[in-house]
């Protein structure tokens, strides 16, 4: 599903964020990406959904070579990649329903399908009764569930979650993780960057640890392994 071959990323200020990364992530895997702050985790994630481009190397996602992707093909590829951010990135003036449906509007989905699918995912994230609410009327956990609904509404093959529990209390965080586990069970590949030691050590999924731009560990049923 995801493969990086000798991937390097050097920013314009000379920072070597990633150095010769080689990794394969299979369909339906749930993978944690861990490491100290500034290790290269965010760059690793952004390369997968082509927010950034590698300085050198090849990246394949769902059969597409991202390095050679024509500009007009980028929206098509991104339809199959759902992204969940730490700060939710919801549109404050749109309702819960409208925030989720917006992801389908972008790909010009039929209105009838849009309504049906949006309500399906709101039911999945247990927010059907909040469809008419604005983001500001929701708790942090509810806002993150809206963000998850938006990320999965187009049935993406890959979910990229960048610190999705970073702003949430422990109880709410576990609710989000149970939801992500269910989405993974339904078939999506999930790659999640996190600093949450307890979640990683309890759930025991595959762990890719990045240190100073290199993969330091890649362990099936791994542990967090850092103090921060």
Automatic annotation (TrEMBL):
Family matches, as InterPro entries: AAA+_ATPase, ABC_transporter-like_ATP-bd, ABC_transporter-like_CS, ABC_transpr_LolD-like, Cell_div_FtsE, P-loop_NTPase
Classification via SUPFAM superfamilies: P-loop containing nucleoside triphosphate hydrolases
Keyword ATP-binding among record annotations: yes
Entry annotated with the keyword RNA-binding: no
Family: Belongs to the ABC transporter superfamily.
GO molecular function, one term: ATP binding
Domain ABC transporter: 2-227
Pfam families associated with the record: ABC_tran (PF00005)
Keywords assigned: ATP-binding, Cell cycle, Cell division, Cell membrane, Membrane, Nucleotide-binding, Transport
PANTHER family with a match to the protein in the record: CELL DIVISION ATP-BINDING PROTEIN FTSE, IMPORT ATP-BINDING PROTEIN
Lineage, opening ranks: Bacteria, Bacillati, Bacillota, Bacilli, Bacillales
GO cellular component term, pick one: plasma membrane
Predominant localisation class: membrane
Assembly, per entry: Homodimer. Forms a membrane-associated complex with FtsX.
GO biological process, one term: cell division
Domain of life: Bacteria
Location relative to the cell: Cell membrane
Physiological role: Part of the ABC transporter FtsEX involved in cellular division.
Membrane topology: Peripheral membrane protein
Protein name: Cell division ATP-binding protein FtsE
């Amino acid at each position: 599903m995801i493969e990086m071959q000798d991937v390097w990323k050097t920013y314009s200020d000379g920072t070597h964020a990633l150095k010769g990364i080689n990794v394969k992530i299979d369909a339906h895997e749930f993978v944690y990406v861990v490491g100290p702050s500034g290790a290269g985790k965010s760059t690793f994630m952004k390369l997968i959904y082509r927010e950034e481009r590698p300085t050198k190397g090849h990246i394949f996602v769902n059969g597409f070579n991202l390095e050679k992707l024509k500009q007009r093909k980028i929206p098509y590829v991104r339809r199959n990649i759902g992204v969940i951010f730490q700060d939710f990135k919801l549109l404050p003036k749109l309702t819960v329903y409208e925030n989720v449906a917006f992801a389908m509007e972008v790909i010009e989905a039929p209105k009838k399908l849009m309504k049906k699918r949006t309500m399906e995912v709101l039911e999945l994230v247990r927010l059907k009764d909040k469809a008419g609410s604005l983001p500001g009327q929701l708790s942090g956990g509810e806002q993150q569930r809206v963000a998850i609904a938006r990320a999965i509404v187009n049935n993406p093959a890959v979910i990229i979650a960048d610190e999705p529990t970073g702003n949430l209390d422990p109880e709410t965080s576990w609710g989000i993780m149970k939801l992500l586990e269910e989405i993974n069970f339904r078939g999506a590949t999930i790659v999640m960057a996190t600093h949450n030691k307890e979640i990683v050590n309890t759930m025991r999924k595959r762990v890719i640890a990045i240190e100073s731009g290199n993969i330091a560990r890649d362990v099936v049923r791994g542990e967090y392994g850092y103090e921060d």
